[in-house]
Specification:
It comes from Chrysochloris asiatica (Cape golden mole). The protein is mainly alpha-helical. The chain has helices at residues 2-28, 33-43, 52-70, 75-113, 141-162, 166-181, 185-194, 202-221, 226-250. The chain is globular, with a radius of gyration of 22 Å. It starts with a helix and ends in a 19-residue tail after the last helix.
Length: 269
């Protein structure tokens, strides 16, 4: 009788916790990019943020959405991918605008310093040039959008043709989550190469670790496809390895660097 009397309280509480966890999954991944976006807008300098982060997350989340058509998983994970794609497009937009404006200002300053030179607009780079040296360093935000639309169209068509193949669908899901799981590896390699974590925010890495731990627990408790859980655990291990590097290198005497370290790029939760 007492247990029945508590149901009216426990059931809405459980529903509230479920909604909160789902909301955290949907929007938690974009939270670290909000201060990064505001900082770029404020300083008009995007040098500390690598647009390759956007590339990796765009590819990973497009593949995850395609995976959903072959094997439907939790709706919050689908919405998380949609929100992350929109966030990365916003990051690309502001980075492109700032970079192009800075290049033009540099040209103007060079022209003012040397009166013999003719002022020319910076060379426009487009993804239709198919120049591997300028890949993902294009001059217009529309080039990034067109490139992602082309990738989505090709990947979507291949998925449509192979949607009945269980092997293809499972491989697609693994590629989607594995690509995202590898996002912290470049930072791990950079720290190892320089034997230093100078320029890296410990608070940011702690945010990565807590977010990835929560995400992995969500995967395990909701019995989502195995690819999510395995790659979530891999992300946590990478985060812990970076924290271990920070602890190890902090105990060593500081090593003079020939160039100032750039701030660490943000990462998905």
């Amino acid at each position: 009788m007492e247990a029945l009397g508590m149901d009216w309280l426990l059931e809405p509480l459980h529903q509230l916790v479920s909604w909160g966890a789902a909301g955290a999954m949907v929007f938690g991944g974009v939270v670290p990019y909000i201060p990064q976006y505001r900082d770029i807008r404020r300083t008009q300098n995007a040098d500390g943020f690598s647009t390759y982060v956007c590339l990796v997350l765009l590819v990973a989340n497009i593949l995850r959405i395609l995976f959903w058509f072959g094997r439907q998983f939790e709706s919050p994970l689908l919405w998380q991918s949609i929100i992350m794609i929109l966030a990365m497009l916003l990051m690309l937009r502001v980075c492109t605008q700032v970079r192009v404006a800075n290049e033009l200002n540099l040209k103007r300053r060079s022209f003012a310093d040397s009166k013999d030179e003719e002022l020319r607009a910076p060379l426009r780079r487009s993804y239709l040039d198919f120049d591997p040296h300028h890949f993902w360093h294009w001059s217009s935000f529309s080039d990034y959008v067109q490139c992602m639309l082309a990738f989505s169209g090709v990947a979507g068509y291949i998925t449509y043709l192979c949607i009945d193949s269980a092997l293809f669908v499972e491989t697609l899901g693994f590629l989607a989550v594995f690509t995202e799981a590898m996002l912290g590896v470049p930072q791990l390699c950079r720290n190892h190469r320089h034997r230093s974590t100078e320029g890296m925010s410990i608070k940011m890495v702690l945010m990565w670790t807590s977010g990835d731990t929560f995400k992995t627990a969500y995967f395990l408790l909701n019995r989502v496809p195995l690819q999510f859980s395995v790659c979530g655990l891999l992300q946590v291990f990478v985060d812990l390895a970076i924290l271990l590097q920070a602890y190890t290198y902090a105990r060593r005497p500081p090593k003079p660097m020939p160039h100032p370290a750039h701030p660490v790029s943000a990462k998905a939760l």
